Amino acid sequence: MIELHQLTKHYGGTLAVDDLSFKVEPGHVTGFLGPNGAGKSTTMRLILGLDAPTSGQALVNGRRYATLSRPMHEVGALLDAGAVHGGRSAYNHLLCLARTNDISATRVAEALEQVGLSGVARKRVGGFSLGMKQRLGIAAALLGDPGVLMFDEPVNGLDPDGVRWIRDLMRSLAAEGRTILLSSHLMSEMALTAERIVIIGRGKLIAESTVAELTARYPSLEDAYMALTADSVQYGAAR
Ligand SMILES: Nc1ncnc2c1ncn2[C@@H]1O[C@H](COP(=O)(O)OP(=O)(O)OP(=O)(O)O)[C@@H](O)[C@H]1O
């Protein structure tokens, strides 16, 4: 479970996250939506303790990330798939992570298998395509077999086969009782993958609902998103 309590983050004069409170519960995929610059990545970084909130709290299983004794066993995340050391092999990249987090080498092989990278495990990550790096980032997130998972735009760069694979993976991880927070700008894909939706704009909560409720009120999830975020788009053509 992820809980945000009045989470706020200023970067100088920019209010990136503004008094944000919501819960992400286990057992289903929760889609995290919002226009460019809405604060989704910042929120995820705050949950992972990669940045400190200006005020408020982000809790994973009731605790701040910094106080988790075995963090990779509790929460895994894919934030920026490009942020890997290109000189290492996929296997060695994961092995380094595993060793520093008390995770067995067996799990490394399992995670590579789970994301379909076993065949290129010994190849340098620098030569990987964006889609392969996304898969590697997902393997890293899964390494500690955590109950809470966050994925920031994981379908970026994936081919149609990969997009379907992500959809099935997200749903099966949720069906296992895990808490899944998934950000994406692809509304049609989100409608197929998520059960619950959180929408933010300009750092503030706009809506917390189910896909079923939104698609009952609007012709599609995309229409719901467009209507609900109409006043929150900062970058883009006027609608
Ligand atoms: N390290 C930082 N320093 C200064 N400003 C930042 C920093 N990180 C984010 N911001 C600002 O905070 C706001 C929210 O950015 P964030 O990346 O969280 O949005 P997002 O919803 O993930 O956007 P996108 O959909 O484009 O990825 C933006 O105005 C951004 O410029």
From TrEMBL:
SUPFAM superfamilies xref list: P-loop containing nucleoside triphosphate hydrolases
GO molecular function: ATP binding; ATP hydrolysis activity
InterPro entries: AAA+_ATPase, ABC_transporter-like_ATP-bd, ABC_transporter-like_CS, P-loop_NTPase
All copies of domain ABC transporter, residue ranges: 2-227
UniProt xrefs under PROSITE patterns: ABC_TRANSPORTER_1 (PS00211), ABC_TRANSPORTER_2 (PS50893)
Gene3D superfamilies in alphabetical order: P-loop containing nucleotide triphosphate hydrolases (3.40.50.300)
Swiss-Prot/TrEMBL keywords: ATP-binding, Nucleotide-binding, Transport
Cross-referenced Pfam families: ABC_tran (PF00005)
Domain of life: Bacteria
Family stated for the protein in its record: Belongs to the ABC transporter superfamily.
PANTHER family attached to this UniProt entry: ABC TRANSPORTER, ATP-BINDING PROTEIN (PTHR43335)
Protein name as it appears in the record: ATP-binding cassette domain-containing protein
Species the sequence originates in: Nonomuraea turkmeniaca
